[in-house]
Every structure is written in C-alpha cells, then in structure tokens.
Amino acid sequence: xxxxxxxxxxxxxxxxSFSGPTVISTATSDPDGSSTNSLGAQFLGDYIxxxxxxxxxxxxxxxxxxxxxxxxxxxxxxxxxxxxx
Length: 85
Fold this sequence. Notes:
- By secondary structure, the protein is mainly beta.
- 9% of the residues lie in helices and 14% in strands.
C-alpha cells in the first residue's frame, strides 16, 4: 500500500541550492482515491503546482486523505476482472 505526503523545498539564491524538504500536507494521502485512463492507472501528478509572490507560496495538490479503496477497481487494474463501469 502506497501513501504519500506533500513536501516543499525552498531556494533563496536563484536555484543554486535548496532547503531540505518540509512536509506541508496535514495528513497522509492514499492514491487509490484517484483514477483515470478508463480506470487503468492512478492519476495525481497533473494536479500538483505552486505559485509564489515576493512573500507567499500557494501550493495545490490532490488531497486524497479520505480515499477508500475499491475492490472492483483494484481487480480491474490487476487484470482479474472486467471494468466495473
């Protein structure tokens, strides 16, 4: 079972070096809460971004802390069952 947290690193010298990672999510997420490609894969990475101004960073990510595994989708991905759709 894979779970993930969201981290932020920071550079104050134009990208020559970066701070260590800091956890910015307040709860661990479960990627089972996201699917696409006709249920063939988990789909999270296209929804992660950050926007900054001179004094703030606004981070956006897929928060799936309340995701519930679905046995039908898991079986479909494993190739042991037809699409549940």
